[in-house]
Design brief:
The structure is a homodimer. By secondary structure, chain A is α/β, with parallel strands linked by helices. Chain A contains 13 helices and 14 strands. The first copy, chain A, has an eight-stranded mixed beta sheet, with helices on both faces. Chain A has a four-stranded antiparallel beta sheet with strand order 10-11-14-13, with helices on one face. A two-stranded parallel sheet of chain A has the order 1-12.
Chain lengths: 408, 408
């Protein structure tokens, strides 16, 4: 037979969604030499001791080493129902799907709702991995700004009404993180949450509420999750133990109406989330280690946050921040002449790992931001890291012109 | 504002790929009362003792409870390279991506190659979960029959040439399981493997070689994996410890050229495969427990297979089987008047769980088959289960007419 294709290098006929870029934040490890202020890692010093729970799980090998049930272990689903009850959410086992982290839940939601080109509403900025997952789903973005009360529901309403009036396809989904938003740290007001549910009903979209940071609260009183305002199944809740216990466990959940859950489960291609990890987590919920870790971590991270804010005020003049009442991150607005990507590169040379805010926008941002995580490093490391960042920043300021007047 | 959409039940605007069917085999658990001859579970009596390895992993919490590296732990990637070397495959760490089981690898391959409507070549029958994953990717199927030497490469060549001559889009991928194929148990000949690689180069497609059962061999000599015949990166190897160690660990791997691997990694939405499980598995590879489990399991499953074959000969007259030299499954051809789905339902009432062969075809099969797993149940349970199945079968035979002449 004559050769149709005889070159030694194969011709890759990629799907459109395939791309060769790995977001640098994702491949950063916690073991590098630089001061780590980039990734949302858990604080290493207080990672839970799970030795006895893991041993017990290993001993239940007839359960934990076989394929697990598709929706997750019943006892874990029940523990998640209990956990959510404390947040003011009424749900039941049949609404809970155990997944491999909240990102996996978002991915499954995309699979059951999003066709290439479908519009999805996100905050600007929003969670960088959500942007990546939505881009992998070939979603189009409707980016809505935020203020201190969260995503701006009046701008959202206007955008939706304009799309409707123009006969444009209406968004199917909205993705947001209402509590200690990644990257901004904003906690959405109760009025905005209520309004989002009304808009979802009115304009016929579903809300994906990703709420990993809710329990990492330093001050102030919580308002109910968006899901608590939802009587019609318009909200798909995502949760995870990554930020309240340990990211390495790779356990998250979806809390949604059964018609959604069944379709998401049908798209799971992992042979069921690991029953060994699920059994370990059931024990950690039962013996109070989850609550204990949340309390310890919240106390410590408040101090981390304060240390970082003090250091920023000292070493990053001309920047502005909003003090978050919880979560893992500070969102730093840079003066207009400072390019965030370049600052991140220079900071790395000074020995500190940070994250360019550009990664947190689904569409190109007009301003320049950094996301700084105070979760992983100690207060001493944070102070040192911000000082290093300050050196890179000062060099750029002297290089790229005088500070703007708002610096004073 | 006037209500555009005020009904209490939301209007779900599903993606086309979303479906509300969960394959029953997937939700079967190992804990039900019936004799389990349906699912490909590991044999419970010899599940490995991983207590000390899990304890050690829990103690390395700075590694195992944080986010892991995107491609997997280097030491696990190296252990996989060593494991593959024993199969005759030369590879290196940079070609290995750790995933959450082989199914996850197939899913990622679909994401980077398959657009809705793209053609994928599969054997008929083939692995039922691969069918599901490919359907979720909205692939079109090119189903090719098998004989005792594996997928029929001459029929495949004819089909491909006809597509080419007709100007039809050519398939991007071929999925197959060359060793102790699920469900047929067939081991592909070396000549067919070589031929598949030639066809892949000639007709410009990639081969996904899923090889979970290769080491579960009862007799005969292995031939090299398809990947060993590949000098140009045309083969994407999938592996897993589900069948050689424990399905509950949810660890698999992809062995492929870096351009493919990078794109697959970019589609991973799990926050990295669980580093706790990876570290546990590194230890199990190092201390020889993987090899030990393979040896023990292979010895036992040979006996299981023989018991099942004897019982089928006694209790299922008129059926035909091919004796597999390894793997987990027997593929039973039923007389034409016996509908497999109905037999599975009736067998369940008799207290034995089996799987209809219909689920193992990407397109509608012309004949009627059962897939029986001898991996999970003991020889005594297998004999009992086949006797129960035989009762349902005998009732159907008397109900749906005389046995065909080939019964004699």
């Amino acid at each position: 037979m004559s050769r149709i294709n005889d070159q030694m290098t194969p011709s890759y006929r990629w799907a459109k969604r395939a791309h060769d870029t790995v977001v640098s934040a994702v491949i950063a490890t916690a073991h590098g030499k630089p001061v780590e202020l980039g990734g949302g890692y858990d604080f290493p010093d207080t990672l839970p001791d799970i030795v006895s729970e893991a041993m017990a799980a290993a001993q239940s090998k007839h359960e934990t080493l076989q394929y697990g049930p598709l929706y997750g272990l019943d006892e874990l689903r029940d523990a998640i129902v209990d956990y959510l009850r404390d947040d003011g959410i009424t749900t039941a086992r049949e609404n809970i799907l155990v997944v491999n982290g909240a990102k996996h839940g978002l991915d499954l939601a995309c699979r059951v709702f999003v066709e290439p080109g479908d519009a999805v509403i996100v905050a600007a900025p929003t969670y960088l991995n959500a942007v990546q997952i939505l881009k992998n789903a070939e979603a189009h973005f409707v980016s809505i700004p935020q203020d201190d009360a969260g995503i701006d529901t009046e701008i959202l309403r206007q955008r939706l009404q304009a799309r409707h009036d123009a006969g444009e396809p209406m968004p199917k989904l909205l993705f947001d993180m209402p509590d200690f938003h990644n990257p901004t740290g904003i906690a959405m007001s109760a009025a905005r949450r209520q309004r989002l549910v009304e808009l979802a009903m009115y304009y016929d979209f579903f809300i994906i509420e990703d709420d990993p940071y809710r329990r990492i609260r330093f001050e102030g009183e919580p308002v109910p999750p968006i899901k608590a305002f939802d009587n019609t199944g318009r909200v798909i809740g995502l949760g995870t133990v990554s930020k309240i216990l340990a990211p390495g466990l790779r356990i998250g959940w979806v809390n949604a109406a059964p018609p959604i859950l069944r379709r998401m489960a049908s798209q799971k291609s992992d042979g069921g989330t690991c029953p060994f990890l699920q059994r370990t987590l059931v024990q950690l919920f039962r013996n109070g280690k989850v609550d204990q870790h949340i309390a310890t971590l919240s106390t410590l991270l408040r101090l981390h946050r304060d240390t970082m804010i003090d250091a920023i005020r000292e070493h990053l003049p001309g920047t502005s921040i909003r003090t978050p009442n919880g979560g893992y991150f500070l969102w730093v607005r840079l003066p207009p002449q400072i390019d965030a990507d370049e600052l991140v590169r220079r900071a790395a040379k000074e020995g500190v790992s940070t994250l360019s805010g550009r990664l947190c926008f689904a569409e190109e941002p007009s301003d320049s931001f950094l996301r700084l995580a105070y979760s992983f490093s100690t207060p001493g490391q944070i102070a040192d890291g911000i000082e290093r960042l300050g050196r890179a920043y000062a060099a750029m300021r002297s290089e790229f012109g005088p500070p703007p007047h708002r610096d004073l």
